[in-house]
């Protein structure tokens, strides 16, 4: 009985990867240090909808409706979205646009004391433009905005799970 070299190599690689702490990006990255959380955004806000999904899928944090009873309150400070001209052709027509999203947030406790200082996330995507395919480019732009929203919420969740919250009652100021 001869043990094939490929099987031995695959076993070695699996042990090496498991031993170094490697895990996929989505696995375990959503563990938040809060038992209850309130998201201070309108019910129909796209960021709120996506953020609620991610928080609920993390498993250990419950979304509550009352900010006073929540251990952490997510507050949006700024949501700025811009579409600017990136380049023009020889005739002066737009060839490319840049989509920019700047988002600032912070986390406070039920008393309004700051737990996580304001954080800023800046995203940008470039999109080509063609006068003959306006409808297709409009759909492509919508997909890019949606992709940027998804990326934004992923970054928010990573920051919320990585940043260690401070206890505002222990601060000297």
Automatic annotation (TrEMBL):
High-level lineage: Bacteria, Pseudomonadati, Pseudomonadota, Betaproteobacteria, Rhodocyclales
Similarity comment: family membership: Belongs to the LptE lipoprotein family.
Identification of the protein by name: LPS-assembly lipoprotein LptE
Known role: Together with LptD, is involved in the assembly of lipopolysaccharide (LPS) at the surface of the outer membrane. Required for the proper assembly of LptD. Binds LPS and may serve as the LPS recognition site at the outer membrane.
InterPro entries: LPS_assembly_LptE
Biological process, per Gene Ontology: Gram-negative-bacterium-type cell outer membrane assembly; lipopolysaccharide transport
Pfam families: LptE
Subunit structure: Component of the lipopolysaccharide transport and assembly complex. Interacts with LptD.
Organism: Azonexus hydrophilus
Major localisation: membrane
Topology in the lipid bilayer: Lipid-anchor
Subcellular location: Cell outer membrane
TM segment ranges: none
GO molecular function: lipopolysaccharide binding
The entry's keywords: Cell outer membrane, Lipoprotein, Membrane, Palmitate, Signal
One annotated Gene Ontology cellular component of this protein: cell outer membrane
Family annotation (Gene3D superfamilies): Lipoprotein like domain
